[in-house]
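Morning. Coffee machine broken again, so started the prediction first thing and wrote up yesterday's gels while waiting. Chain of 327 residues, entered below exactly as on the submission form.
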Amino acid sequence: MFPVRRMRRSRSRNIQPILRQTRIHLSDLIVPLFVDHALDKPSPISSMPGQMRYPVSSMREVAEEVSDKGLSAVLLFGIPKSKDDAANAAYDENGVVQQAVRQIKKAVPGMVVISDVCACEYTSHGHCGIVGETRNGTDLLNDPSLDLMNRIATSHAEAGADIVAPSCMLDGMVASIRTALDDRGFGETLIMSYSTKFASAFYGPFREAADSGFSFGDRTTYQIDPANRREAVLESELDLAEGADILMVKPAGLYLDILAEIATLGLPVAGYQVSGEYAMIKAAAERGWIAERAAALESLTCLKRAGADLIITYFARDAAGWLVEEQ
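Came back before lunch.
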C-alpha cells in the first residue's frame, strides 16, 4: 500500500478537527457536589484541589454557576450533622440532600439532579447499610439494608430528584428501589445504578470529602474484585434485568475494557472518573510533570471513546470552559 496509503495526510493541523471521531459534549458531563449540613460557608477539600464541601445555603448559587457553564446535571453527596448505626439522617425529609435537591430545583428547574443513594456518609461505622453478625463476623447485611435504600431513594424522589443512584452494591437493590418508587407514585424517577463498582484503592480522597471512611473491615464483600472481568459484567447485566435505566462503571479510567463491554448491553452507561484519578492528575500537574488541561481532556475523551454516554468527573466545570474555548 505504501506510499498510496499515507496516514499522516489526514493529520494536517487544519484537517484534524473535522476528522475527530470522538467528541465530548457539555451534556455528557455530570458535576459531583458535596453538601455538608454542618457548614455555613464552602470548605476546600485538601486531597481534591479545586473541590469544595458546600453548605445547603450555597446550592442555589452553585446550581446557577453550573448552569451558566452550559452543564445540565449534578450528582449530590450529603454529609449529615450527626450519624448513627441506622443512618436515620439519610432519609430525613429535611436532610442535607433533600434540602439541597429542593434548593437546586428552585434555582434551576431544568437542572438534572441525581442523588447518591447510600448510607456510608450517614452511619457511625461508615459501611453502606445495616451491619450485623454473619457466619464470617460483623459485616454489611444485604436484605435488611434494602429497606433502608428504599427509604433513602423515595425521600430523594419526594424532594424532587430526577434520578436516584444507588451505590451500595447490594444484591437486588435496583429491583427493590424500583418497586418502592413505583409504589409511592414515582414511576418516572430514573435509577442510575452503580452497577459495576470495584473495591478500588482510588476512592481515598472521596472518603475524606464525604467523611465516609469505615471504622472496621473493608468493602470487599460487596464491591467487586478488580481482577474479575466476568463478575463485573454480570453485575451490570443483573441490574439491567432488575430495571435500571442507566448503568455505571466506577472507577472508569482504569477499567476501559469493562466500560466498553458494558456499553454493548444496550442501556446508557455512565463512567465515573473517581477522586483518586482526579487527584493524580491534579498532583502531577501541580508538580509540573504533566499539563493538567491536556491530561484531563485526554482522560475524558478516552472514557467517551470506550463507550461512556455520561461522564461523572470532578473536572466537569473546568472541562466545560476548555471545551467551549476549543469550539
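The chain is about 35% helix and 15% strand. Going to sketch it on the whiteboard this afternoon.
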